[in-house]
Amino acid sequence: MITCHTVRFDDPQCTFGRYGVMAKLKSRALTEGRRPSMRVILAVVCLLAIFEAELLISVHRESQTADESVHLYAGYTYWKRADFGINPEHPPLLKLVAALPLLPLGVPPAPTAKGPFRPVGVSGGLEFLYSNDADALLFRARAAATLFALALAVLVLAAARNVRLRCRPMRAYADGVSSATAR
After folding, report:
1. Structural domain count, the chain
2. Contact of 1 with 161, CB cutoff 8 Å
3. What Rg do the C-alpha atoms of the chain give, in angstroms?
4. How far is CA 105 from CA 77, 100, 108, 143, in A?
């Protein structure tokens, strides 16, 4: 039995030399950058479509949350009046994205009352939502918000692929080490 500790690295029986792990690492490095097959791409697209469909079905069945009307009213007011005084306690990105599909509908914004922003936001949000078709407005806003979950799913898939590619050389190294100690 020959182990790597007693032979030179260019010996064909050594797993660390030019014939062992290093050769595996070099050959795999050339194939790591290859593109995924069409079946893999199709499977990923199908899974993402199923994920989006499940999100939209659950969005349609959910009831309104306590502050959803305030956020929707605030986002719509941001677009129409550039007034960021309604509901300033939360960042505006999600409110802007949720209100974006409401712009083509031409819904008139509720008038802004004077006073502290919390009571103004609650009363304006309820008036804005329920003086129009509340179900349609909520569905459009929630459907736009699902884009964040879909983007996160795509990022997780990309990160998983990157981690899998980076772990291949480590697996080859571990295989070489385990085969060297088994001799």
Report:
1. 1
2. no
3. 28
4. 14, 10, 9, 15
CA atoms within 13 A on the CB side of 10: 0
> What residue type is 168 in one-letter code?
R
The residue ranking higher by pLDDT, 161 or 123, is 123
- Concatenate the DSSP letters of all residues of 46-77 into one string: HHHHHHHHHHHHHHHHPPPPTTHHHHHHHHHH
Residue 59: inside a domain, yes or no?
A: yes
| Separation CA 49–CA 153 (nearest Å) | 11
Query: pLDDT tens digit string along 144-155?
Result: 999 999 999 999
- Calpha distance 174→20 (Å, rounded): 11
Q: Tell whether 14 is covered by a domain.
A: no
